[in-house]
Specification:
9 strands, 8 helices, disordered C terminus, alpha/beta, 5-stranded mixed β-sheet, two-stranded antiparallel sheet, hydrolase, Protein-Tyrosine Phosphatase, Chain A, elongated
Length: 278
Amino acid sequence: LAVCRGPIPGPETLGGQEHCSWASPAAPFCSPVITLRASLLAGGYERFSSEYPEFCAKTKSLSNVSPPTSAEPLDLGCSSCGTPFHDQGGPVEILPFLYLGSAYHAARRDMLDALGITALLNVSSDCPNHFEGHYQYKCIPVEDNHKADISSWFMEAIEYIDSVKECCGRVLVHCQAGISRSATICLAYLMMKKRVKLEEAFEFVKQRRSIISPNFSFMGQLLQFESQVLATSYAVEAVSPSGTLRERGKATSTPTSQFVFSFPVSVGVHATPSSLPY
């Protein structure tokens, strides 16, 4: 179907038939009226394509496209091996006693034993604790959504991680994917214990596990936690201005990006032993 716009033409024949649109009788005689003229293409598309193939393009008919079946897996960012990116490799070392991973890693006893993991911090409400008779477990039942108050668990999580450290153990912090909830806990731990800003802690953890991405609400809660941590740090520093940065770093940090520990310039996603003081 061809449609053209212009002044009213005289009757015209295409393909042996007249096809014209005339102005309304109410319009003034001989007035310039703009209207539409619909015309049929003689011979249809087949004739047109045979005479003017350069103006035609072949497309796949929708009737030939098969709808996806339930047996076909959805593409959720998986590699050719079929394992989601967040489950590939193993847990990553944040500090020599602190590891970050996913629920898949938490279900792999071979991985846990190889890393010397003695305890797990399960930051979810639905991930099972697979080996309760073999490892120490603690659960933080938090959902990964904007309504969850994960910051109310920060101090309890930090104390648990420290308790494992004091027993010369190693703890794996995990959620379902090791991207949002468990990463948030690891960030809070670094900010609190190393007295660093969120930006620095985030970069440090991301260098080790590049896919971390706490949800927007968690990032806001971490920023609020940062202000609390640094406010305490500055207060302690004001009371005890003497001493070296390393000595003061155990309780504080300065506001000039001189942090308790230096972040490496480049660290692999699955980095092994950290060079940071702990």
